[in-house]
Amino acid sequence: MVINNFSIYNNGLIVLITNNDEQVTLWGDNNSGKLVYRKKGATIFNVQHTGIYIGKDEWGRSYIAHSHIDNGQAVLDSVENFSKGYTVYEDNKECVNTPFEIVNKALDAIILGAQYLTLLENCQHFVSDACNNIKESLDVQRITTSVTSIGVGAYMLKSKNGFVNALGVLAILFGLHGAVRQPYNGEQASFL
Question: What is the model's pTM?
Fold first, then answer.
């Protein structure tokens, strides 16, 4: 859902006004502001799709703020829509901002219509900004480094110098190793 306004009250109540002028009420809890992720899908680079847990509605349905290519912008989705059938994990990364600030920043970004751009404004940029006030995507950094290393290594293999060839092989191996990383070490998000 896209929202136009929100209010957060001391008792944890979060009142959202949608772009259709509907009022939606969520209840924040001790887990509001926690970072979550799921597998992105069938990618050779093991990219993770990240989001921020906001709260639950009156039926106990959990809501996640995230930015996704399918929406073209940051939105608030039910955990079912966020997960796309994959297990959702809690990301135990430490944040500079408090959980309250994280929720505020996430909802503000939705109101501002934060656009989704794969390399510049993806889900990881969205979560990183809310968490640490820095827009970065570790997966984009890792993949661009890997692809660059593989490309440089392939170019070096054209050399007639055996030492340069050996360095090229090492660059390719370095790039392949960096491209295929292990998933984050989070546990299944039981609070959802």
Answer: 0.82
